[in-house]
């Protein structure tokens, strides 16, 4: 009796497929028509959030690489000065502005703004859509990306065009801020990303630049919207701490040991006329308010001078402060990561260095004020 041939084990084993199997990385033909870089302009009570202009400057770089144009989207009520905002966007590098005036767009609500932005995207087909990672921008970006069934990379620290795929390469911190990853949306359009305020440089304004304005409509009535805007109540504390726009920031970390020592940070900041920042452990310990946290889960800052005392400089903190013009680090550990990106380093005990700096700056500023007088 002959024995049946045994199946070849190698042939029987299923072929190994590469990671990401089943995912399409080819851009469908109908999406290849999507062109241009768009920025959503965030405004409130007559003022545009500066992150919008920072993104217009970044969009200009991306568009120049792609050989395309920059457009902005401005949504608002019937009596809001949207054309004025568009004119300002042109000075920062935009070529075109899509404007929608509608009564239901007076004051931000997710439903009408999502419909307004998604309708414009479907009609005019931009390749890239950028929004600020603010309270409004984060809420709107997620809703728009879900509606459009496209990808969204949040809280990016860098945006560039991949030279091979010509796709948007959006870099952001990941794994709790210990690593950076670059994400590309290859098979969907538009490619969406949000960027926190002060991460990108403010572009220079060119008053001679003009652009094209396209007026569009929303086609939505108030009865279709679930949420209602009843009133606006300003936060009485909103202007007390404004880290992202401070010129001088003195920050303290857990190396200061206790809240009593952290007071040395406040004393130096007061002499310099600056703001006080902190790392997450200091906030979690209750030494300072959460609004003072600098880093991945806090504020991104871009001051002229950033003094970091007792801060090791892990990547979670670095992403929040590395845009400063000058960084001065004070740490007892000469091998602390913060010395890798600080412009000046002081290896020493912050509890001794901070009072010395406070005294020296106070004396210098007092002398200068007498000379001016």
Structure description:
Strands 7-11-6-1-4-5-12 form a 7-stranded parallel β-sheet, with helices on both faces. The chain has 9 helices and 17 strands. It is globular. It has helices spanning about 10, 50-65, 80-90, 110-125, 135-150, 260-270, 280-285, 315-320, 350-370; strands spanning about 35-40, 45, 45-50, 70-75, 95-100, 130, 150-155, 160, 170-175, 180-185, 190-195, 210-215, 250, 275-280, 305-310, 325-330, 345. With about 375 residues, the protein is an alpha/beta fold.
Calculate the terminal CA-CA distance, rounded to whole Å: 115 Å
**Would you tell me which CATH topology of the largest domain applies?**
Rossmann fold
**Segments where pLDDT lies below 50 for 5+ residues?**
9-21
Total number of helices: 9
Anisotropy-based shape = globular
Q: Indicate the radius of gyration in whole angstroms.
A: 25 Å
The overall strand count is 17
Count of distinct structural domains: 2
Class per helix and strand makeup: alpha/beta
Specify the CATH architecture of the largest domain. 3-Layer(aba) Sandwich
Largest sheet: 7 strands, parallel
Q: Find the CATH superfamily of the largest domain.
A: HUPs
């Amino acid at each position: 009796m002959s024995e049946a041939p045994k199946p070849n084990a190698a042939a029987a084993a299923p072929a190994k497929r590469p990671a990401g199997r089943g995912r399409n990385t080819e851009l469908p033909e109908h999406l290849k028509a999507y062109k241009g870089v768009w920025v959503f302009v965030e405004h409130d009570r007559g003022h545009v959030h500066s992150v919008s202009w920072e993104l217009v400057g970044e969009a200009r770089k991306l568009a120049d690489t792609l050989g395309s144009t920059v457009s902005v989207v401005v949504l608002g009520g019937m009596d809001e000065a949207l054309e004025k905002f568009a004119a300002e966007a042109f000075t920062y590098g935009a070529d075109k502005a899509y404007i929608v005036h509608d009564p239901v767009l007076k004051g931000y609500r997710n439903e009408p703004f999502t419909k307004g932005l998604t309708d414009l995207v479907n009609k005019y087909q931009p390749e890239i859509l950028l929004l600020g990672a603010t309270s409004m921008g984060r809420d709107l970006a997620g809703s728009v990306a879900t509606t459009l069934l496209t990808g969204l990379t949040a809280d990016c620290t860098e945006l560039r065009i991949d030279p091979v795929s010509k796709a948007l390469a959006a870099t952001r911190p990941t794994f709790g801020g210990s690593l950076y990853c670059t994400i590309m949306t290859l098979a969907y359009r538009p490619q969406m990303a949000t960027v926190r305020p002060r991460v990108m440089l403010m572009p220079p304004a060119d008053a001679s630049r003009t652009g094209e304005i396209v007026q569009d409509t929303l086609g939505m009535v108030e009865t279709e919207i679930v949420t209602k805007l009843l009133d606006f109540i300003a936060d009485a504390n909103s202007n007390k701490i404004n880290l992202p726009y401070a010129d001088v920031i003195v920050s303290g970390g857990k190396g200061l040991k206790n809240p009593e020592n952290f007071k040395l940070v406040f004393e130096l900041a007061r002499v310099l006329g600056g703001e006080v920042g902190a790392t997450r452990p200091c906030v979690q310990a209750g030494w300072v308010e959460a609004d003072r946290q600098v880093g991945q889960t806090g504020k991104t800052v871009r001051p002229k001078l950033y003094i970091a005392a007792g801060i090791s400089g892990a990547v979670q903190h670095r992403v929040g402060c590395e845009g400063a013009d000058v960084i001065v680090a004070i740490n007892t550990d000469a091998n602390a990561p913060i010395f890798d990106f600080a412009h000046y380093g002081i290896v020493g005990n912050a509890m001794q260095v901070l009072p010395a700096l406070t005294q020296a700056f106070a004396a210098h500023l007092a002398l200068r004020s007498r000379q001016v007088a």
